[in-house]
Design goal:
Number of helices: 9
Distance between the termini: 25 Å
Largest sheet: 8 strands, mixed
Number of strands: 21
Strand content: 25-35%
Oligomer: single chain
Radius of gyration: 21 Å
Number of domains: 2
Length: 435
């Protein structure tokens, strides 16, 4: 059977007035800067078809993922383990969980996702047509930066120190400069769509207007250059400790819609350059694996609960951030009492000579690099916030050094060993497909 590939996109823009995600303060949608989408890519070689979805959302809850996967599998016949989905992590989209605040997300919108996401996947499946597929990679070292720094005065790691600060002692972690692309063309060479994998936090624009941020600008730039029918999926890499801000360049304005547009267009430049050098084939080996892990929860020390209680009893100690963390400390303790582990899905795909590892958390970049270094595939793309969300997954070094991402909360609930557990699982599945 000749290779067939299909693409589709469904508008998932929320209505005005519902709760937004990504910040401590409770923001409501006040306007629409640009629209949000779920984009889907179906690849069918007649033996082991795959469906990939990317969503302009901060995250996807596990229960939503399960419902979407069941609906797509029932409608298409594609095996559940071969259906993969991820969130771009835009901070200017609707809330999909209650992290940072007690109020829940809009129930009607969350329910809508269980219809819109399957609709995109099923449409991509129906849109399959004979095609050729290519994979490739490039290098981008100026858009993404590690955001954690050891400070001289406090000997503590902080996130986002002031630009140009002379109190910076060193940058704690690494970056991942790889740009990975999976692209499809018709048999006569017309572009159909692509999936781009790049690691950088999606919190560039801010504000209370809905925006897909730079991944949306990437998709728009690809449409402008490849035609209105082109669908550009953005699969975020391991970026739990990465962002777009270059603290070493105080003159660079790397915030707001203009910078998001710059990032999207530069990534589109890379995608087109990579595609120009691709070997497009009409026969591609496809495979998939999926495992649900029970990830160990972190310990909550008595000292943290004592601090949280003191904050809640003492008005002069209360502020937006500490109030949130005090409440989450008790919430996390109760969660751990109910269950000592937290479920997380790790998935691995094979697309030709390239492996794709799908991890469920806001993974620190080091975990993605570890998978890439030890994978048996010719090249491996790693996608975070896939198939659900388990919160931040810092390295053991980061746990020891302090900082926002490892601070105990419902956004950081896992034990320090969780990241290595997920890496080993992903590598075992890749080994089974490539060795």
């Amino acid at each position: 059977m000749p290779l067939k590939v299909g693409f589709a996109e469904v508008d998932t823009t929320p209505p005005l007035g519902i709760r937004m995600a990504g910040f401590f303060e409770d923001r409501m949608v006040e306007g629409i800067h640009d629209r949000l989408f779920c984009r889907a890519m179906a690849i069918d070689n007649g033996e082991h078809p795959l469906i990939l979805l990317t969503c302009d959302l901060v995250s996807l809850k596990g229960v939503t993922v399960q419902r979407v996967r069941e609906a797509v599998a029932a409608a298409t016949g594609v095996a559940p383990q071969s259906i993969a989905m991820s969130a771009t992590h835009t901070h200017t989209g609707p809330a999909t969980s209650s992290v940072f605040y007690q109020r829940p997300p809009d129930a009607d919108y969350v329910e809508r996702l269980t219809r819109d996401l399957p609709a995109a996947a099923i449409a991509a499946w129906k849109n399959r047509r004979p095609a050729k597929l290519g994979v490739g990679w490039g290098f981008e070292g100026r858009l993404s930066h590690n955001r954690r720094f050891m400070m001289r005065s406090t000997r503590q790691v902080v996130m986002h120190p002031p630009k140009g600060s002379t109190d910076i002692l060193y940058q704690e972690g690494r970056v991942d400069p790889e740009v990975g692309v999976i692209s499809a063309r018709t048999e006569d060479g017309k572009p159909l769509g692509c999936l781009l994998n790049f690691a950088c936090h999606v919190n560039v624009v801010g504000g209370s207007q809905v925006s897909a941020d730079y991944p949306g600008q990437f998709a728009a730039a690809m449409k402008a250059r490849q035609g209105d029918g082109h669908v550009g999926l953005f699969a975020n890499g391991c970026c739990g400790n990465l962002c777009q801000i270059d603290v070493y360049d105080p003159e660079r304005s790397d915030w707001g819609h203009e910078w998001a547009k710059h990032m999207g267009e530069r990534l589109a430049d890379h995608a087109l350059k990579i595609e120009a050098e691709m070997d497009f084939r009409d026969e591609v080996k496809l495979d998939s694996r999926l495992v649900e892990l029970q990830l160990p929860m972190r310990r909550i020390p008595d000292s943290l609960l004592e601090w949280a209680g003191k904050v809640q009893r003492t008005p002069e100690l209360q502020n937006l951030v500490d109030d949130a963390y005090a409440g989450m400390a008790f919430e996390l303790r109760e969660e751990i009492r109910r269950r000592p582990t937290f479920p997380g899905i790790v998935q691995a795909l094979r697309v030709g000579d390239v492996g794709v590892a799908m991890l469920p958390g806001e993974m620190f970049v080091e975990f993605g690099l570890d998978i890439k270094l030890h994978s048996p595939a010719q090249r491996t793309f790693v996608v975070e916030l896939s198939n659900g969300v388990v919160g931040y997954v810092p390295t053991k070094e980061a746990f020891a050094g302090g900082g926002y991402e490892q601070r105990p909360a419902t956004s950081s609930r896992l034990a320090p060993v969780a990241g290595e557990f997920m890496v080993d699982t992903a590598l075992s599945m890749l080994d089974s497909m490539f060795l």
